[in-house]
Amino acid sequence: MKKLFYITALLITLVSCQAQKKDGTELVSPTEFAHKVEAEKGQLIDVRTPGEYKSGYIDGAVNIHLYDKDFEQRIDKLDKEGTVYVYCKAGGRSAEAVEIMHEKGFKHIVELDGGMDAWNEAGEPVKK
Questions:
Q1: Which of 26, 56, 67, 78 is the most exposed place for a label (fewest CB within 10 A)?
Q2: How far, in Å, CA of 38 to CA of 32, rounded?
Q3: Left if phi > 0, otherwise alpha if psi is -120 to 50, otherwise beta: which for 105?
């Protein structure tokens, strides 16, 4: 019975990963996020508040606060064909931002799993 449970859980995980890649979005670990940002040089967006951003951010990130009135107008100025990297503090706001971007037609979105909390925990570099 346990074996069946584990097999089912594995299949669900694989299917959900395939679905993310299928619709142009990826949820990646801090290490993978850092490698992708370095290798692909896409658009890096921090959707936290300006205060959170000033406390430490990923080098090269532009702060576009998710709850600002002009959030959608500002992301409309981004290249929808190019890769966009998105993060927040823990993952909730970036997931919202990814959904909005997906609805607006962005082709490839990479989200930092666990946000800055996970980034800091992984020991990745932070700018201030």
A1: 67
A2: 10
A3: left
**Distance of alpha carbon 123 from alpha carbon 128, whole angstroms:** 15
CA distance 13 to 30: 19
In a domain, 6, yes or no: no
Q: What CATH number corresponds to the domain at position 52?
A: 3.40.250.10
Per-residue pLDDT of the chain (128 residues; tens, 9 = 90+): 555 444 444 334 444 443 344 478 999 999 999 999 999 888 999 999 999 999 999 999 999 999 999 999 999 999 999 999 999 999 999 999 999 999 999 999 999 999 999 999 999 999 99
